[in-house]
Design brief:
Layout: H1 5-14, E1 17-23, H2 27-38, E2 43-46, E3 62-63, H3 75-91, E4 96-105, H4 112-119, H5 131-144, E5 155-158, H6 160-165, E6 175-184, H7 187-201, E7 205-208, E8 211-216, E9 221-225, E10 231-240, H8 246-253, E11 263-270, H9 273-279, E12 283-287, E13 293-299, E14 302-306, E15 310-311, H10 322-335, E16 346-354, E17 371-378, E18 381-388, H11 394-408, H12 432-445, H13 450-460, H14 464-471, H15 493-502, H16 508-515, H17 526-540, H18 544-562
Parallel strand pairs: 1-2, 1-10, 2-7, 4-12, 10-18
Antiparallel strand pairs: 3-6, 4-6, 5-6, 8-9, 9-10, 11-14, 11-15, 11-16, 12-13, 13-14, 17-18
Helix pairs in contact: 2-7, 2-11, 12-13, 13-14, 14-15, 15-17, 17-18
Protein name: Glycerol-3-phosphate dehydrogenase/oxidase
GO molecular function: glycerol-3-phosphate dehydrogenase (quinone) activity
Pfam family, one: DAO_C
Length: about 600
Amino acid sequence: MPPTRRQTLDRLRADPAVSVLIIGAGINGAGLFRDLALQGVDTLIVDKQDFCAGASAAPSRLIHGGLKYLETGEFRLVAQSTRERNLLLRNAPHVVHPLRTAMPTHSWWGGIWPSIQRFFRRPAKIDDRGILISEAGLTLYDFLGRHFRSMPRHSVTLGRKVRESLPDIRHDVRALHTYYDAAISQAERLGFELIDDGCRAHRGAMALNHVTLTGSDGEAITFDDEEGNAFQVRPRIIVNAGGAWIDEINRQLGQETRHIGGTKGGHLIVDVPQIRDQLDGRMIYFGTPDGRICLIYPFMSHVLVGATDIRCTDPDQAVCDDDERDYLLEAVHYLFPEVTIGPDQVRYRYSGVRPLPHSDAADPGQISRDHAIVEDRIHDWPVLSLVGGKWTTFRGFAEEVADDLLARLGRRREVGTRQLAIGGGRDFPRDATSREAWLARVTAICEGDRHRAITLLDRYGTRGEAVARHCAGMSAGGACRQRPLDSLPGYYIGEIDFVCRFERVEHLADVLFRRLPIALAGLLDDAVIEEIATLCSGVLTWSEARCRDEIDRVREIAVRAHGVSLGPGADDTTASGDEPLSSTSGNAPRKGTSSTQEPAS
């Protein structure tokens, strides 16, 4: 078993020396942590929030090659991204799934001249990517994504078949180009599993969430947690994986830097069955007349809509505000003008700040989504800041940084990660026979409930078997863990107990917003919050006052940061009194936030 939080703190107080200190446990930091741990490097990763709680919890949830990067000639990035996409489909099949994608086009010749201008890095607005330019781009996309390919190549649908496929789509759509990328259903869970895998791989690999950097004297760095447990760390090398907070972390370490120029990406989870049914499992990747790119695809019984691209100087205040919400709803309405859609259908919204490199570009969409390692010397430490990157390429980025660090430490790589399964993707059943064997075994543990076994496999991957066995036991108080929650029948008491005991939970929000996709699925309400808080309190031995504080904190986050309506007494920011968009208007969105953009991933 990995060391507990208490054991980790005791170890650091006894011996604060570590080879590598990683500050920031988003996807870049988590991927690097696992890689270093697999090589046997003593590594500590810390975060002021929970693991994967910043921008890594707020992507468009795509694992994609970056089709749009072709327009700016970033062929190397596309080749790397498509390869990493294909690897993640193999290594994390429990949370990464193929996503059939349709790209509507309105003309044969549109977009050719603006695409040429953008290729040579000249400003140009593309309000129509025509059939010919789309066909050329997708042919190249297929070629660059040929390594480890596991999905079909692109195809095109013309004429009346477009209307048969999507009855409510705009009438001026002439063709649908269909290609395949991938989506990640539970990004936050995969981030935690990388941390967990690292802690299990090497006893010198340690992870602490909810700790704050409080000072540095040039010899040691001091941290403190919420319970007043201060400790020092004496690293040989520091990796700043703080994302949008990189410059602030460097300032706290003792040097002013200007590495980051982040942009905010807002997303919506919308309850609109009419569109969800027509999507039939597909994502639509579409442009609007103001030159922006948006997306919409089915997600946990609703649809996910994204994304904005707005410069942001304070990542702590990044939320998807009402203007962004209205813009995204109007973008959907532009694509489906016959469908009524309004703010009252938004079940959840979120935003994060992409850690893009500092740039003076007028258009945020033109800033490269590639990654880079920037080295500073702060006191006597080499500090490597991980700038840029995205969910799709985290493994490759981690490999690059780990190889650099291993060379500095005089060590050699022992384990490759290219084809190494992550968390619940380990021993995942890939064919009908092995899947049936897994389900039969776990169904027996679940008292013959096959549907329950399927749910556990979908939610946790092969780790679902350990969850099932835990649910089959009795709690310390003698209560049956094999009982569904009163407020949320799709979850069992034992699941909450398991997550609290074995998944480094410190707060109620860790469970509801990250370890489990409860909030993300639009399932948060007061009854759910109260019942799960009570269960967490029993496992984590919270006082009654602490439990009430946790409930209040979750309600505040849900309303302020995610626009969730929790009923009477909540400070509801969802503007439920707004009028829905007309079901007959086909107007384009009123205003944009940039002329072009790439979905966060």
